[in-house]
Amino acid sequence: xxxxxxxxxxxxxxxxxxxxxxxxxxxxxxxxxxxxxxxxxxxxxxxxxxxxxxxxxxxxxxxxxxxxxxxxxxxxxxxxxxxxxxxxxxx
Length: 91
Prior knowledge:
By secondary structure, the protein is an all-alpha fold. The chain has a single domain, classed as Methane Monooxygenase Hydroxylase, Chain G, domain 1, CATH 1.20.58.1480. It has helices spanning 2-11, 24-34, 39-47, 51-66. α2 runs parallel beside α4. The longest helix has 16 residues, at 51-66.
């Protein structure tokens, strides 16, 4: 959870960590619901049974987007099976 919170802070410096959900499952659903993802990827994240795995996927997606990458649906990447279409994302 700590790494995801740090990544979120790099996206939004005004984010207040004390206002985020404290339980891993609640937090992972909060992240999935608040990231600017397309519906296909959001649905994929929400169907992952493990909060830990969901957070790992979310962190992977956030790092790729912050790095300027556009993550596309790919079965070659076991961490991210979905798509995110965010043209012009600034780091």
